[in-house]
Amino acid sequence: MNPQLLFLCTGNYYRSRFAECLFNHLAPAHGLPWRAFSRGIAIELGVDNVGPVAASTLAALARLGVELDAGHRYPLALAEDDLKRAGHIIALKRDEHQPMLAEKFPGWVGQVEYWQVHDIDQAHPDDALPQIEQEVRALLRRLADKT
Predict the structure, then answer these.
(1) pLDDT tens figures, 87-117
(2) What is the CA radius of gyration of the chain?
(3) Which site among 20, 24, 40, 49 is 20 to 30 Å from 31 CA-CA?
(4) CA 114, CA 125: separation in Å to the nearest integer?
């Protein structure tokens, strides 16, 4: 079975979905068997989200020539089994997600790599999504160097 990479954000609607799709699109070119999936730690906070995926995520993926992996599925909530099956876990923003993990999945807080990508309330997608792209590309290089 291929190693699994889990991207976490709050709602699994915008940041983690972009990271998941971009990673899965780019990983084969790096010769990596890894496959990413994504979940939201608190999808209940996304009650105002419209549709299954943020329009800004879809537009950014389209500009990069990346198709949405799992079709237009709706956000999925994080479960303990997701954490257990992941070989590596990345939360998109330490300040936001570490407290959520501490509350809901306290045993996993120290097993997560944390990035610092702001959500839409603090950063425009034109700034946040390129930051995620840069982080994903750096991660791919790190993983490729280990193989």
Answers:
(1) 999 999 999 999 999 999 999 999 999 999 9
(2) 14
(3) 40
(4) 19
Q: Judge whether 86 and 80 are in contact, CB under 8 Å.
A: no
In this structure, which long-range contacts are made by residues 60-68, counting pairs with CB atoms below 8 Å and at least 24 apart in sequence?
60/18, 60/125, 60/129, 60/133, 61/18, 61/21, 61/22, 64/22, 64/25, 64/133, 65/25, 66/21, 66/22, 66/25, 67/21, 67/25, 68/17, 68/21
Could you give all domains of the chain from N- to C-terminal order, each with its CATH number? 4-146 (3.40.50.2300)
The pTM of the full predicted model, rounded to 2 decimals, is 0.93
The amino acid occupying position 58 is: L
Quickly tell me which residue has 């997608």 as its tokens: 125
Handedness of CA 63, 22, 142, 99 (dihedral sign): positive
Q: How many residues does the chain have?
A: 147
Q: Which residues pair with 93 in a beta bridge?
A: 116
Q: How many CB atoms lie within 10 A of CB 65?
A: 7
